[in-house]
Amino acid sequence: MPIVKMLRQVASWMLRSPACGCQPPSLPRRFLGTSPRQLPADASFHSTSFAEADQPRVLITGGLGQLGVGLASLLRKQFGKDNVILSDIRKPPEHVFLSGPFIYSDILDYKNLREIVVNNRVTWLFHYSALLSAVGEANVSLARAVNITGLHNVLDVAAEHGLRLFVPSTIGAFGPTSPRNPTPDLCIQRPRTIYGVSKVHAELMGEYYYYRYGLDFRCLRYPGIISADSQPGGGTTDYAVQIFHDAVKNGRFECNLNPDTRLPMMYIDDCLRATLEVMEAPAEALSMRTYNVNAMSFTPAELAQEVLKHVPEFQITYNVDSVRQAIADSWPMNLDDSSARKDWGWKHDFDLPELVTMMLNFHGAQSRVAQAN
């Protein structure tokens, strides 16, 4: 193996050195890194590499997913366009590419990730690369690589360079044995999807790195996120996005969950604001590393009733997907986010009526533009 070969070379080189009172030979530079992969147990990273008064230099991984582009837009307004770097392994659409810095970043390539952080003097990292629930179940090996191995690379780079790290978690981190209504921050977590398992792993690894290495790790358990300007990404709660596309386009929607399946949800603007607020919160205000955040909770039938108020001809039918239904039935019906509201002042802006109005206004406007064209 390459490591064994290298160690043999080092040992041979040291044995050839003169046995005298000279300075002992130094190890090759590769052995002198400050990654948790290489450090002794008593190492500490509590000092950060940038002054608190400075604007953060931000890297977003998995930036072309549902949340990355919107988060980049919010952070660029706050910290300046050039201080926020969006990254992904896919080619960005033109409007994203022109909106601010974009680079290729593969989280499975540790060297590439490390170079990006060093070359761009990154101080905050938002790690959004992940395969979601239903997609992950269809490709467990890839989900394991991206969601777990990729996370390990991110944790090591963040700890080595004193970054403030945000990793999103999810309602999928809970399982059928968790209390469901409401689900508290701290309770039993036994998820039954690779997505959920990987997110519990992320929560625990982040907390471990916080206590072991002083990594400034922060995490929110998102409910289902509903956004107007992105396509569904393979999640179990994505019906609550697709329903608006179909209501405006066709006037009907086929739902893959039972009509009484209650799940916690949040409009994307609330989600992005919660993410920024927890990252800006003073360290001393945080009583835990992972918080629940919530805004509303509804069923497909309740959402359809609200859509009907705006689109009287709208019709909904149900063709239940057994895999997605089983996932939904193991998730919380409502999240208890009282700790987030108490510790750092979290407060949502959008309830179900405001959410439906925003989504239909957006898609209605888009549809009218398409028809005019």
TrEMBL record:
Gene Ontology biological process terms in this record: L-threonine catabolic process
Sequence ranges assigned to domain NAD-dependent epimerase/dehydratase in this UniProt record: 58-293
Keyword Protein transport: no
Catalytic activity: L-threonine + NAD(+) = (2S)-2-amino-3-oxobutanoate + NADH + H(+)
Known EC number: 1.1.1.103
Protein name (Swiss-Prot/TrEMBL): L-threonine 3-dehydrogenase, mitochondrial
Function: Catalyzes the NAD(+)-dependent oxidation of L-threonine to 2-amino-3-ketobutyrate, mediating L-threonine catabolism.
Family, similarity comment: Belongs to the NAD(P)-dependent epimerase/dehydratase family.
Keywords: NAD, Oxidoreductase
Enzyme class: oxidoreductase
GO molecular function, one term: L-threonine 3-dehydrogenase activity
Pathway, per record: Amino-acid degradation; L-threonine degradation via oxydo-reductase pathway; glycine from L-threonine: step 1/2
Record-linked InterPro entries: Epimerase_deHydtase, NAD(P)-bd_dom_sf, NAD(P)_epim/dehydratase
Pfam families for the chain: Epimerase
